[in-house]
Amino acid sequence: MTRSVQALAYSRASALETSQAGGRSLGLETAGGLTPRGAEAHPRFFTGFLTSPRIAARGLLAVADVASTRYYRRTLLSSLDPMVTGNGDRLRFESFSGCCGVYARLDVLRDGLDGAETGHGTTNVDVNQPLREALSRITADDPLHLRVGPDEMAVTTTDGPVVEKKVPLPDRWLRGFAEAQVVSAGFDLRAELPAAEAVRFLRSLPRTSANASRGARWVVPAGNTLRPTTRPVSGAVCLPGPERLAALQGVLRHATALRVYGPVVDGTAATASAWEVVLPGMRLTLTLSPESSRGFSGEGGVLEALATDDAEADAELVSVLLAWEPRIEPADLAEQAGLSVERVRAALTRLGTAGRVGYDLADAAYFHRELPYDARRAERHNPRLVAARELAASGAVALDGVLAAVASGDRRYQVREAEGVLSCTCRWWADHRGRRGPCKHALAVRMVRRDATVAGGSR
Questions:
Q1: By C-alpha distance, which of 254, 265, 253, 386 is closest to 239?
Q2: Is the domain of 55 the same as that of 138?
Q3: Please, what sign has the CA dihedral across residues 129, 132, 136, 141?
Q4: pTM value?
Q5: CA 263 to chain CA mean position, Å
Q6: pLDDT digits (tens, 9 = 90+) for 319-341
Q7: By residue range, what is the domain housing residue 52?
Q8: Does residue 341 share a domain with residue 251?
Q9: Assuming Cys at both sites, which of 95, 255, 276, 392 could form a disulfide with 444, CB separation 3.0 to 4.6 Å?
Q10: Domain of life here (predicted)?
Q11: Are 267 and 314 in a shared domain?
Q12: Does residue 258 register a pLDDT over 70?
């Protein structure tokens, strides 16, 4: 696995402090991030009171717990500070599990922030072990003041120690954010459970993989609850690795509903799904990859968008129009950019590979963020895309109508196009049937066909 080291420098450690008057103040320190004003060493996103301190603390702990957990090959350690994005009317705390198979996000909405405005931008926020212990001890709903970013004194002075963390950051995490956005955009709301049924259902799930059955589970809506089913019938939702929902347990007593999202069932293969606990003024969502052993980074949902020149140019144009909106409407962007909605969606997919776009299931809309990492790593370290470009550049692809032959190593593969979908005779296609994106041969054919169309003046 390719890794780089991300240095996170904080002006001080995050802490939960108690004043002489008995009030408490939660200070979350920020590292270098991106804002509308450009890069900032310690951006400030919010200062104000939380409407439900105890619930917010539990939600933040859940996101931090996912960031420090591997649900596959647990012997390997993981630790990454969650990211925070300010979208003007809410704060979004996000993380990925160490195995890249669980994406967690806590949306603290305007009502949860006592109506106060937030700033705009994205950065990492320090969640250290002493802070986790302090957050876990919050039991009463006493007033709690939240500060995300340095206070005024820290802004105007460089005195005092700097807390620096060096985090080994797998490149696959950046790709994982892009893939999670693509797969989520294809989900629909499949079920909504009231509080009592949500608690009953989630508490019935195994908390460890040792107690979980092999293979994917399926559930189907039945009245105001979910019941298990032995096969993916119409309307069913996949529950892959149910023990991966354990991070939701800490907020269940405060839940007002559980929303379950998933794609249209097509066949028997396991699919990703999303589980959203609705809280007062907040939403906590866990999105699960199709299998515990599969990270989102290898799903291949962004490859088609990365392989096209149109999407690259369109993404440059659309990126100028983004303004840290909590809701991005493709139709509005299409009108502003003079593009079709389909091309705007492809551009948003490409921007997602740089961490610049996420997807909110509850709003059924994209949102703007900017990861403070090297945005080009996602494309450069996508092995199928790199291999496809090499095949296309080396003349390994021979077109013949709807068919194409691709020479790869000592073998030749046949790629066929039917209704815009490419299939291949390689082992990857036989194993996955397009469920994890196109193979390198199909991608190479797509590139060569596009170049041939452009050369022929059809575009």
A1: 265
A2: yes
A3: positive
A4: 0.85
A5: 16
A6: 889 989 899 999 999 999 999 99
A7: 3-92+107-170
A8: no
A9: 392
A10: Bacteria
A11: no
A12: yes
Do 142 and 217 lie in a common domain? no
